[in-house]
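Technical appendix A lists one of the benchmark inputs used to test multi-chain prediction within the project. The record comprises two sequence entries:
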Amino acid sequence: MSAPHEVEIGQQLPPLTVRVNRADLIRYAGASLDFNPVHWNERFATEVGLPGVIAHGMLTMAFASRVVTDWVDDPTALLEHGVRFTKPVVIPDDPDGTEVEFTGTVADKGPDGTVRVKLSATCAGKSVLARAYAVLRLE
Amino acid sequence: MTLSRSIIGHTYEPLAPYAVTAGKITEFADAIGEQNPIYREVGAAVAAGHPGQIAPPTFPVILNLRAIEAVVRSPEFGAGSPVLVHVDQSFIHHRPARSGDELVLTTTIDDVTSRAGHDVVTVRGEIATTTGEPVTTCRSRLIVRGGTE
């Protein structure tokens, strides 16, 4: 972990690439108790107008938060985080699934030792999160 | 049919307390690929100054979703099960949830707006221990489709 004085605005955090398949969605459904059928039932997903089974937005958010929790020694430094879900992450029915790439950039430093990180998530070249951010306290 | 704006400001009493367990935390960490031992081993969490195994930052979704599902089944949301589309989500952490916590979530409808003929509901969930210690503030915006026939 970098000490606050070493953190510079514009600094890139180590990026994270995650490959997600349908088994991962089932596992997350059980862990989060989110059994919305759009995340496991192709018929239901297409009936409600989706291109297919989609990842839980909250799973994408959890991966995005890992960009910051992997960066610091103490993940409880994460005070606040938020995302807007702009585009569904469609998960094909094959073992390879799909890849989502996450980045983080230091956007601001507060006088109180807090750091604001702008996050991004991209799937197949398209952004899937907007206004994604995290606020950390680095001591 | 649209939701009545009179529900803005309405607060829903918590459901039964949710008991955070070490096993559930590990299961959740596995599902999001989180390898940090602080989420997996009591020893690592204690060494980092916590009284017990702590939960990853999006773990409160378990309580938040359960509360939202209860809210949209309340009479003011009409009959049937509405389809929910998650628009955005934020968490403010007052302290990490941890194994042994008994947590309750109090839901407030912060706003109701319209977008393309659908209701967009802003729900705030205040998570605290049963003894009143604040843990996490959750904010969710959801498109609510159907269920108001």
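Chain B has a mean pLDDT of 91. Strands of chain B lie at 11-12, 18-19, 83-93, 102-115, 118-129, 134-145. Comparable benchmark entries are summarised in Table A2.
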